[in-house]
Amino acid sequence: MVKRNLTITPALIVAFLASTVATVGPVVAVEPLTLDEYFAAALKRSEVVATQGELIRQAEERYKQADAALYPTVNGVASYTRQDPVPVGESVTSNFPNRQSLAKVTATQPLFRGFREFAVLRQTDALLGAQNQDYLNARIQLFKDAAQNFYAVLSIEQDLKNLDEEINQNLDREKEIAGRVRIGRSRIGELLSVQSTIGALRAQVEQLQGQLGTAREAFAFLSGLAATTPLRDAGALPVNLDPLDDYLARLEQRPDVIASRQRLSAAQENAKAARGAHLPSLDLNANRYLERTGSLRDSAWDIGVALNVPIYSGGLLQSRVNEAVSQSTQAELNASQVRRQAEQEIRSVYQSVVFDRSQLEALEKATESARKNYEAQRRDYRLGLVTNLDVLQALTAYQQNRLALDRARYTLKLDYLKLQAAAVRRPAPPPETAP
Fold first, then answer.
1. Suppose 130 and one of 237, 253, 259, 260 were both cysteines; which one would form an S-S bond, judging by CB atoms 3.0 to 4.6 Å apart?
2. How far apart are CA 275 and CA 385, in angstroms?
């Protein structure tokens, strides 16, 4: 047997990698995801929104059940009875023979139930409408969650870019000062100060990497996509902000406000149904006999009216009325609270947007001034007019202002989206509910 030694060369490694890539195939680049695309993916993934859809289906079936109470019921009835024979010596009549059979079709049509069935029908219709609004409200809440996570990821990634740039600027400072130390124009303490700053910045990078990992995992949980999916901010900063009254005017269009009103209507109809139990009920009954024994065996059908008048039930009916009235009052209080909370949310987020815009304008000016100051300090340092500490302080101030400016931009965009959502301007309603 001849043994051969295989020498690993760079050319061999390159050839192996090329063959591996050719086998696997080309790497498909993932397109960056916009907020709307992220929200669309989260909608497909969300169990909360899907659950609301199932609750709508259940409410639709309850409406059908309430509607069925207005229509007649038809049942088939059959029975066979065999009894002990009559003792010897006693008379036997054909009215009650020893063997009795019965087969009939019976129908019952409610004529009057104290208008309870109509109140119950309106109640279930209102609850169905409320459930539809709950579905829309769940979509809005999911949009807020997606927007919060979307801009959290973008903000952290931008912070990392800014810190990376700041580290590179400090590395340039380190090289410059190291050269000056070698020729005796700077002290070793200045070099150590820059190196200390670089170390602190790298520690901040590690901390932000942990925060980014958490935000990315939340992204994967909400969207069902890979955590590494790139994001693209397609939203522009709000230029003109509508007056507050324009947003408050849309208060009554909020799904949570509409749902609370519809639940109030349902509670009021429930009270009407409870009061209707005090009134008499009237039913029309009809029977068609297919088989019958006894003296009425030749009678093929009968029809009649049954009247039921409630007289006394131990206070049960009135107790149900009192309970329903209390539930109606509770629903009224809840509707008032929901509306006030919705108004407070719009006012609060609107003020946040106004403050964000003012802060952004101030930070833009401060960042520009800090940049000019840093450039001036660098020039003066080369001329020996300022110390290295002055330059580091100017650089830190400039970078901190840049960090704050970028964060303020994302905060303004996020708060503006929250304002749009609070005023039912975002997200767009599903096609089946769009006006």
1. 259
2. 92
Nearest to 49 by CA among 260, 222, 219: 222
Q: Using the Cα atoms of residue 393, residue 395, residue 398 and residue 404 in order, give the sign of their dihedral.
A: negative
Residue 17 tokens, joined = 């990698």
Query: What are phi and psi for residue 307, nearest 5 degrees?
Result: -110, 130
Cα–Cα distance for residue pair 153/232, rounded to 1 Å: 11
Which token pair is 190? Answer: 């200045």
Q: Which pLDDT value is given to residue 1?
A: 41
The Cα 416–Cα 412 span in angstroms is 6
Return d(Cα 126, Cα 66) in angstroms, integer.
12
| Half-sphere exposure in the Cβ direction for 312 (13 Å, CA) | 1
pLDDT at 8: 43
Tokens describing residue 113 = 């139930």
Q: State the pLDDT at residue 10.
A: 41
User: Collapsing DSSP states into helix, strand and coil, what is residue 175?
Assistant: helix
Residues paired with residue 269 on neighbouring β-strands, in sequence order? none
Name the superfamily (CATH) of residues 32-81+95-433: Outer membrane efflux proteins (OEP) (1.20.1600.10)
Residue ranges for the chain with pLDDT beneath 70: 1-29, 86-96, 432-435
